[in-house]
TrEMBL record:
<keyword id="KW-1015">Disulfide bond</keyword>
<keyword id="KW-0676">Redox-active center</keyword>
<dbReference type="InterPro" id="IPR036249">
    <property type="entry name" value="Thioredoxin-like_sf"/>
</dbReference>
<comment type="similarity">
    <text>Belongs to the peroxiredoxin family. BCP/PrxQ subfamily.</text>
</comment>
<keyword id="KW-0560">Oxidoreductase</keyword>
<dbReference type="InterPro" id="IPR050924">
    <property type="entry name" value="Peroxiredoxin_BCP/PrxQ"/>
</dbReference>
<keyword id="KW-0575">Peroxidase</keyword>
<comment type="function">
    <text>Thiol-specific peroxidase that catalyzes the reduction of hydrogen peroxide and organic hydroperoxides to water and alcohols, respectively. Plays a role in cell protection against oxidative stress by detoxifying peroxides and as sensor of hydrogen peroxide-mediated signaling events.</text>
</comment>
<dbReference type="Pfam" id="PF00578">
    <property type="entry name" value="AhpC-TSA"/>
</dbReference>
<dbReference type="GO" id="GO:0005737">
    <property type="term" value="C:cytoplasm"/>
</dbReference>
<dbReference type="InterPro" id="IPR013766">
    <property type="entry name" value="Thioredoxin_domain"/>
</dbReference>
<dbReference type="GO" id="GO:0008379">
    <property type="term" value="F:thioredoxin peroxidase activity"/>
</dbReference>
<dbReference type="GO" id="GO:0034599">
    <property type="term" value="P:cellular response to oxidative stress"/>
</dbReference>
<feature type="domain" description="Thioredoxin">
    <location>
        <begin position="2"/>
        <end position="152"/>
    </location>
</feature>
<dbReference type="GO" id="GO:0045454">
    <property type="term" value="P:cell redox homeostasis"/>
</dbReference>
<protein>
    <recommendedName>
        <fullName>thioredoxin-dependent peroxiredoxin</fullName>
        <ecNumber>1.11.1.24</ecNumber>
    </recommendedName>
</protein>
<keyword id="KW-0049">Antioxidant</keyword>
Length: 153
């Protein structure tokens, strides 16, 4: 599991237009993991981050949402809700590296799933802040505030 001060893991994601390596980034990065496209909480989170995209861009902070959903499903999700936040697909490698693929329980049934989590990395690739077990209301705003703090603005 990644901890504060750790560097971006050497994992690759599918951004829908090809693969990209996280460790190749040289700008501040917000990476948020979410369970599933087109569900209530995940939709609200993507809409909130999309609404703040201009603010993140003004700071030079890249933003990427990650789930196990396919690139085609991400495209439909983005089109349906006019999302501007880039969405990437993970085969599970990044989720394991970040410690977000966890055992969950719902109505007594145990299963493996994504723990809604967000990670803010500095431009040198070190983890500045992490949010685990995220509650969606106000979260995107809190991440933006942390990015401003990190950048001293």
């Amino acid at each position: 599991m990644i901890e504060l001060g750790d560097r971006l893991p050497a994992v690759t994601l599918d951004g829908g237009e090809g693969l990209f390596a996280l460790a190749d980034r040289n700008a501040p990065l917000v990476l948020y993991f979410y369970p599933k496209d087109d569900t209530a909480g995940c939709t609200r989170e993507a809409q909130d981050f999309s609404a703040l995209m201009p603010d993140f861009a003004a700071l030079g902070v890249e933003l990427v949402g990650v789930s196990k959903d396919s690139a085609a499903k991400h495209r439909k999700f983005s089109e349906k809700y006019q999302l501007t936040v880039p969405l990437a697909t993970d085969d599970g490698t990044a989720m394991e590296a970040f410690g977000v693929w966890v055992e969950k329980q719902l109505y007594g049934r145990r299963y493996m799933g994504i723990d809604r989590s967000t990670f803010l990395f500095a431009s040198d690739g070190t983890l500045f802040r992490a949010w685990r077990k995220v509650r969606v209301p106000g979260h995107a705003e809190a991440v933006l505030a942390a990015a401003k703090e990190m950048l001293g603005t």
